[in-house]
Amino acid sequence: ELEKIKGGVQQNIPFHYDRAKFFLSANSVGLFAVSKCPNDGYFELQLPKIPGEILKQCIDLFRYMAFQYDKSCCYEVTCQIYFDAEHMEYEVYVPEQFVAPITCRVLKKRPVEECRGKILVMDFHSHHIMAPFPSLIDNEDEIGCQLYAICGDMRKDGDMAYTLYVRAGAFGKWLELATDTVFEEPEVLPSRDFQLEQAELNKIRTEI
User: What pTM, to 2 d.p., does this model score?
Assistant: First the structure.
């Protein structure tokens, strides 16, 4: 079945195949084989690895919402990583969203006209100072055939360390991945003085 799916990927034919043990699926992002048993499966990325600079952009956003947006508390926030198939490059998109200390929720999807020729590769959100493990809400939300990541264990003072949790998902089943399966290492540390552009700030709400 894996060879059959790989052939479908080469022909850009997305499809899925349900067997007794695995849910097999393929699209432009990769080859997914996720199991009914947690973290039993296989994933093969069909795109270039996500560059370190793109990862840094996401971490800068997460740190800003954790420590600079409101000095009195940390906020979760989400972003999306797209691959522009025409220009063969990745980009970070910040959707319109509601944010709070223990949740974030997309309020408006990216306009269709902005998605033409682009592949949604990953939904990526922060748990700021908390551990980056998926919550029940995360599991309910992350049911698409794509990649997902969480950043946590960030600290305001001292080093710029953080922890990533990355998984491939399909049909509400997941396979945890090593970070370097999909990300390249950033060449520089996250910025301490990062400022979010006003256009992005306008998309973030603390009240609905």
Answer: 0.90
